[in-house]
Amino acid sequence: MADSEVADLPLTIEDVRAAARILEGQVLRTPLRHSRTLSEITGADVWVKFENEQFTASFKERGALNRLSHLTDAEKERGIIAASAGNHAQGVAYHAKRLGIPATIVMPTTTPFNKVEHTQAFGARVLLEGNTFDEAKAFADQVAKDEGLTWIHPFDDPMIIAGQGTVGLEMLEEQKFDMLVVPIGGGGLISGIATVAKALAPETKVIGVQAAMYAGMVSALSKGETPIGGASIAEGIAVKEPGQITRRIVDALVDEIVLVQEEHLERAITLFLDVEKTVAEGAGAAGLAALLAHPQKFAGRKVGVVLCGGNIDLRLLSSVLNRALVREKRLCNIRIIGDDRPGLLAKVSKIIGDMGANIIDVAHNRLALDVPAKGAEFDILMETRDGQHTEEVVDALKAAGYPPRGL
Q1: Under a CB-based contact definition with an 8 Å cutoff, are residues 262 and 233 in contact?
Q2: Which residue has the higher pLDDT, 85 or 314?
Q3: Could you read off the pLDDT of 4-31 as tens digits, one per residue?
Q4: Parallel, antiparallel, or unpaired for β 358-365 and 375-383?
Q5: How far apart are CA 69 and CA 42, in angstroms?
Q6: I need a labelling partner for 288 at 20 to 30 A (CA). Which of 40, 203, 300, 310 fits?
Q7: Number of H helices, E strands in the chain
Q8: Where a domain ends, among 148, 173, 207?
Q9: Does position 343 have pLDDT exceeding 90, yes or no?
Q10: Which CATH number does the domain housing residue 255 bear?
Q11: Is 106's pLDDT higher than 50?
Q12: Domain residues for 359?
């Protein structure tokens, strides 16, 4: 990386320090904590930056506040506009209200109601338009022109990036790291953190993380034809097209970008809740997911992980946690076929209960064509302590003459 290349970048450490002075006392200096258990699980020395503890549960309000603070009086009076389905919307709306700036947020019609409600609660005018972010943004562009509103970009703006970079500034003021692991969507957060890291601790490697379904930055930098799209759990970083400014900074300062699959994102969300007793959205858990997906890359290193957001739909969180129980065989479906006679279900239930397992649900089916006319079929959902306990219950059923089939 040549000095001239760094000199040509649109952001410096001084820009981030200036943003930190503006943000002081207005956003939370979030905790940076060592996690002994996550360190044992991953093999790395793991430190977590809890940006989900911000008032809007995301780092996004840092950049939003820095950008809003640079508006002229005339721009503040006319108002601002942003397009977002989540964290950027809430960060902009919250700080616009605090500063007395009229805010309009355009959100796709597919945005979960709770996010629309939260954004409105912060005093913003919310317009629902389009089925995708791109459609919402196109509508926002037109509204901005029609009403003379100032556009607040979610990531491709030096003042936004400088605000996000204060996350890295706080981390490096407290600890030295071998690696910083940062989620990438549009690239604003990692661009700011990388700017800080390469100025203050050039030996620290900055590793970006993208969901495998949305490797937009990887595709942009490699100029490849990486397929992009799908229903990723990490919707906060599900960005097809990264910024022009951010890709320049990432190309110059970020050491590597790794991809993670949905399974690792789900496991990371579960671990944050189970181990750290904290809620992470899919994008927020991407850093930990990278350590789970690529353990050899981080083993033995002191790693700073940015938990960048905690805004996850409760139904989705419930699904992730239940899927984790299934994956660990603590929730298990079994099917038992036997003679249709009184007491059969009672006998099977007693065996399961005597083994210390708990029956959650039972479906009784006499009409399945692969079951004899005088037979019956039971689908049983049971809860056990772990995979070994499940096997013990299954063995007990076999020994009693009721061999279960897995579903």
Answers
A1: yes
A2: 314
A3: 456 589 999 999 999 999 999 999 999 9
A4: antiparallel
A5: 40
A6: 203
A7: 18, 14
A8: 148
A9: no
A10: 3.40.50.1100
A11: yes
A12: 329-406
Q: How far apart are CA 6 and CA 252, in angstroms?
A: 7
Contacts of 10 (CB under 8 A, 6+ apart): 158, 245, 248, 249
Total Cβ atoms within 10 A of residue 20: 21
Letter for the amino acid at 328?
Answer: E
For the cut 90, the answer to whether the pLDDT of residue 86 exceeds it is no
49 with 108, same domain: the answer is no
Long-range contacts of 315-321 (CB under 8 A, 24+ apart): 316/233, 317/269, 317/273, 317/279, 320/233, 320/266, 320/269, 320/270, 321/270, 321/273
- Quick check: 120 pLDDT over 80? yes
Pairing, β 32-34 against β 45-50: antiparallel
DSSP 58: B
pLDDT of residue 388: 92
Q: Which of the two residues, 404 and 298, has the higher pLDDT score?
A: 298
User: Could you give the number of structural domains in the chain?
Assistant: 3
Show Cβ contacts of residue 154 under 8 Å, excluding neighbours closer than 6 positions: 60, 82, 83, 84, 88, 160, 186, 188
Confidence at residue 132, expressed as pLDDT on a 0 to 100 scale: 76
Phi, psi of 146, rounded to the nearest 5 degrees: -65, -35
- Residue 226: pLDDT band with limits 50, 70, 90: confident
Strand arrangement of the beta sheet that strand 45-50 belongs to: 32-34, 45-50, 302-307, 179-183, 205-211, 256-260
Cβ neighbour number for residue 274 with a 10 Å cutoff: 12
Q: What is the DSSP letter of 128?
A: E
Write out the E strands in 67-191. 80-83, 103-107, 125-128, 150-151, 179-183
pLDDT of residue 4: 45
Q: Quick one: pLDDT at residue 114?
A: 75
Longest dimension (CA), the chain: 84
My answer on whether 91 and 198 are in the same domain is no
For residue 304, being part of any structural domain is answered with yes
Model confidence, pTM: 0.89
Helix (H) or strand (E) holding 339: strand 331-339
Distance in angstroms (rounded) separating the CA atoms of residues 402 and 376: 12
The answer to whether 178 touches 204, Cβ cutoff 8 Å, is: yes
